[in-house]
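User: I want to check something. If I give you two sequences, will you return the structure for each one separately, not as a complex?

Assistant: Yes, each is folded on its own. Here is the first sequence with its structure:
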Amino acid sequence: MIDIQKSPFLTVDETTTYLRINKSTLDNMRWIGTGPKFRKHGGRIYYHEEELREWSLNSRRNSTSEY
């Protein structure tokens, strides 16, 4: 039996908590393509926990003016 509590797939709400960002920010990043990779399962959006970590690591900056 699969333990849903241990699923690596996070909902949008779980992802915003995980990344500590607003839902509207995540929605906007998904819309313009700057956010983490996501999947659609049955019309619902999910994010994989490992890909969120990877995206966050790749988003590191040394200054606020750095692209």
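And separately, the second sequence with its own structure:
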Amino acid sequence: MKLLRLTATEAARMIGEGSLTATELTAAYLEQIEKHDGDVFAYLKVTPEVALRQAEAIDLLPAGERPPLAGLPLAVKDVLCTEGIETTCASRFLENYRPVYTATCVKQVLSAGAVMLGKTNMDEFAMGSSTENSAYGPTANPWDTGRVPGGSSGGSAAAVAAGEALWALGSATGGSIRQPAAFCGIVGLKPTYGAVSRYGLVAFASSFDQVGPITRNVMDAALLMRHLAGKDPLDSTSVEYPDEIKLPDDRDLTGVRIGVISEISGEGIDSGVRAVIDETMKKLEGAGASIAEASIPHAEYALPAYYILAPAEASANLARYDGVRYGLRAASAGGVTEMYEETRSLGFGDEVKRRIMLGTYALSSGYYEAYYDQAQKVRTLIIRDFESAFEDFDFLVSPTAPTTAFRLGEKTADPLTMYMSDICTIPVNLAGLPAISLPAGLSDGLPVGLQIIAPPFTATKLLQAAFSAEAAIGFDGLSPLLEGVEEQEKPGAS
């Protein structure tokens, strides 16, 4: 039985009926991590003792008393606090930092029975599109270890694609769940802003950040999302989800109105990516959907607006890292000012420093009205553009990323080119909308993602449409590291 090929839904059924134990499944994933993570580097911290202890506790429960996610191995992005377990945000600033509490979303999933395998690599403080900004080294794409897995949730995406986790939690500020999911040929769901608690999520840009699932398929994303959504009294920006999130149950696209966003689906998109998306649209139309062109007129201003607003929020959020309260403190500094300067110089990487400076400049006297205030107006216009488009369409689509996974080091010297990697996803985050990335096919042997966008707080409808689109597309590709897994024997088998 190829345990690593099981989806979360299949594994949950087998554990529930007793044909598979949580310990067996967890041990299989830990073995895969030990075998391949030296090449992939998906994890900053693997927690085998924690995982096996949690799995063994699940196996001791009577079958009828096991929680819904019992024994399902999970990877957690290292931007989410975990009590007593290092949470570094891939930064030297928080090296060896152990939180005294666990993020609400992690606690919810663990309470539902999931087993935590470890903390995954990421771009430092979630600032990046390739996981090359990690202070501890880059993660590799399981489809081609000479290429990036995307970012900033690249470690979580790579872990799932490499068979080093059954599923994972990521976070998105400008596209950091969907873009790495697209690069790694898996599913990534960015929920509506406010649908999932941000308590315990180390802040990058508070009005953008949102936690979501990274999984092998849409059904698994729906299963995990059911245990993430909801009001948290510890997070004032979270809301009570208006309806119960239901698992998708049919594959029918008949009558569904889909709009292809012209501003982020044509010019600037790699020809191979565009060919895959065009073919995907034909498949969705063949499955009964009606396809037409849609417009988000102000989408062309989304990228510059985002790179004013998000750094502005980051400059305020990262002011707390001063060497006084927690984290790194420069030992050789003289006075307080020197200590601040040396500590922040040593602790932050180049990209984080760049965004702090951008944000501080945009908020400074004389420039606030010219930059920050104008960017907020653009954000409002983009929200209105989406509202108008949803009057004519049930869902909007585009490529998830303008290219397939690029080579490690290819864009590190050119920040503007790197920022363009999120050109398709950033408008959605500016508007706070839910969106999902599905693998749509391959271009030159590398995965291409399809982004499906929905109105706010319509997770059930979005997941149902994605479930149907997944069947119409018919992509079942696995990364070489997962494709090549051998038959695993259960412990004690002869």
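Because they were folded independently, the notes below concern the second chain alone. The longest strand covers residues 435-443. The first helix runs from residue 8 to 17.
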